[in-house]
Amino acid sequence: MKENKQNRKTIVIVISILIVLLAVLGLTYAYLSTTLNGSDQIVKIDTLDLILNETSEGINLDTAIGVSDSKGMSLTPSTFTLVNNGDKAVDYTIYLDDMEIDSTDTRIDDNFLKYNLNKNGTDSGATLLTRIGTNPNRVLDSGTIEGRETNTYSLNIWITDEVDGNYSGQVFKGKLRVEVSQERQTVAEVLLDGVGENGAINTSDPDQTFITGTDPNNYIWYSGKLWRAVSIDPSDNSVKLVTQWNISAINYSSGSASFEGSYMEEWLNDISVDGFLGNLREPEKFIKMDSIWNATMMTDETTKPTETTLVTDPVGLLNIYEYTMSYSDTTAINGYLNNVINWWTLTPSDASYIWNVDHGRTGGYSTVYTNGVRPSINLKSSVKIAGGDGTIDNPYRLNGDDDTNLLGTLLSSRYSGEYIRFGTGENNLYRIVNHENGTGTKITSAEPLKKDGSFISSTFGNGIEYSSSTTIGSFLNNDYLNTDNNYLTDEDISIIEDNTTWYLGTIGAGTNYKLAKYTDTTGTTLTSSITTAKVGLLRYGELMAGQFDSNDNNTHYWTLTPYSTSYVWSVSYYGRMDYFSSTVANGVRPSLNLKQNVIITSGDGTLQNPFTLALP
Question: Are residue 523 and residue 549 in the same domain, yes or no?
Answer without folding.
Answer: yes
